[in-house]
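Case study: Glycosyltransferase family 32 protein.
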Amino acid sequence: MTSLYAPRANGKGRLSPLPSYSNTLFEKHSLRSRPSQWTTTYYLPVPGSRRGRRIKIVLPLPKNVYHSAVHRWGRKRTVAIFLGTCLLFLWLLSVGKRHHRSDQYPNSTPSVEPSTLVFAREDLRRVWEWEIASGHYPSSRKIPEQIQMAVPPLNPAVARKQQQPKPIPTRFRPPSSVLSETIGAGPKRTYLDIQSAPPNVAYPPRPVPGSAVDLDIIMDNCDFSTNKYVRDCLEVLRVGAGLDNENRMRRGNTDDWKYIYMEEDRKFDSSPPIAAPQQKAPYNLRQTDPNEGLVFRKGEPLEEHIVFGPPRTYRPYAELQEPCDPDYPRIFHMFWTGPFTDKPYVALMSFLFTQNLDLHIPPGSPGPDVCRPQFWLWINPGPAAMAHNPSAVHDMYEILSNNPWSSPFLHPRFKDVIQFKIWNTTEQLDSISEIKDSWRTANLFNSGGHVISVPTKKKAPKTTSIEEVLVVVNGTGTAPEEASATGHEMSENDMFQRTGSTSQDTYDRLSVILSDLARFVLCHRFGGTYLDADTILLRDWEELWGWKGAFAYRWSRLEKYNTAVLRLNKNSALGSFLFKTALRNGLDFHPMTISQYTKDAHLEGLLLRLPDALFDSAWLNTEDYQRDRPPFPFFTEFAHFFETPAQHSAAPQALGIEGFFRGAFSYHFHNFWWKPFDPIRNWPDLGQRFIKGETVARKRLFEQKLNSTRSTASTTPGMPGQPQPVLQELPITEEDYMSEDAIEEDKRDLDWATVLKRTFEAYIRGERPNLYGEWITW
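Here is what the predicted structure looks like once written out:
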């Protein structure tokens, strides 16, 4: 007997407009539920069901539209069209969302790069062991498990800890044979509470000589990967170093913000010596590939074992006989190509203004036992692709003494702290034992895999004389060789003739690539810290010198390096690894490629990626990150440093350098070589002691302005029927360009770049003290 509510077996739709139900359950639900005008209920039959069971589907489709569509196309086709439309809409929505995200954050999803690793696991383990034994890993963070340490290494740069009970392994989790922690064997640390003592709170105190920074604490408070804000990081940096001298607010207990410490002398330590750790027997005795889990460079044989010298003996500052440790020289390196401009000038001025150089002590007087840092500015005298002439050193000093921007630093007062050195690519690369026999067969201009080949010249280039160079430096013309070149030759070889970047269109790409190589060469050969020329120092680096490891800083939101600030120890195992790896990968030292080297080899912990808040505090804001709680000043573009927006232009003069990313160690303004720091007073304004250079610079600017006025007047048409006026060239006198400037000629609201430059110059003129309240003496 067939049920009244059974489905029709012939598959044809009913002609009756009355509702039909497959069973009494659906009929009761339909009668008791309140119908909605905006939805339609559809019962989808379940295939293979014996009793004709159906699934209830509520479609967001008005009833009148549904009935109209059913009348036209039938019930099944209507439902199929509706579901297909919904799927198409969802697909278009997802595609549009991915496209929008890729436009807004083009590098948010990095592509999978081929491996660059050319060393076996044993060699990577030896790099870790050498660096730790030398005290270059003053961190309690774990070693990557991929290194597979069988013996926990003793770490002389980390204080010993109290013995903690070891976790008891369970039968569900057997003990691991891979160790990832070091054993602290270093001297005890005392964390300092640094602040100015009232009532002398006008200036912050100098860091304690020999102090060091605990970068583990910095990472805990500043790491972008853990959603830390740059604003909060700068507060921790200020409070921990006493840089909030006049603005210290009563807060809660800030002991966790103390990141500067002193190491005690180990001869006063009565703790028993730590026994050498024993190798742990592996739990799994099954023989495996020693390089299992590592991904190597495709199609390349592994590199031979690296030969390292003995590890350095770690010596705390309290055990040194002299203030300076010869194994860790305090040298700032900087690389510069082309005429000396206001960019390296301001970098050197910030060095004099912030670092502990004893310039407040009269020359010849005994000063405190502090290790004074030095600044080595490496000058590449010609284009990056050109060889130097034999008299390059003599010519360099001749040019520097005639350039108003560089001549002040040749003063005898600065001879012990600022040194100019000639860059010779051949001599420098031959001094690196890891590449000296092979670098000539490689291309030196490889940046991120993009190789620029230097064309072979058919004719030997003419050697540029010192007179021709001085013509370019002093701005009185163009070099004869450059002027005689045809337009076709210049357009073809202009990239290889550039000496510095004068605009966005004439960016000196080759010198930038050469500087990527130079920073690793200089640090590996001499030790110290490399700074890009677009860097301004903002505070004393004493505690950073006390940290003996290697570091660069983070590339904004990406987990990559930016080597605009690079610390690398002299002749270290890490440096040897980087040079050997780079040689096998085309001698590529681009920061992104360096990131790939250390990531593939699991050595990122040895080249610490510091938060960019320490050296590049505006970067995240310029990429539309953390704008809900930005640091101060708030830059949405790097150009705002040179051209501060009008609504924020009251801050530079009101707050001065004390309000400029207070707490950061330096600021990186990202190129802009063509924008002057001080457009109105675009000369070294250092007073009567350096008036000769100022006179030369002001005369040159006056001549350029006069020539521009004459050129504009000569091209302006006169009135119809009247003769063109003739401009009479009168001789230029010193009163024309050395007269006192009127306040109306100055810019009303000074930009941040201008305020910083004029602040540094006021210190040299003796009109104000430096950042720490010290007055310069001559």
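For the exam, be able to explain this: Residues 24-101 form one domain.
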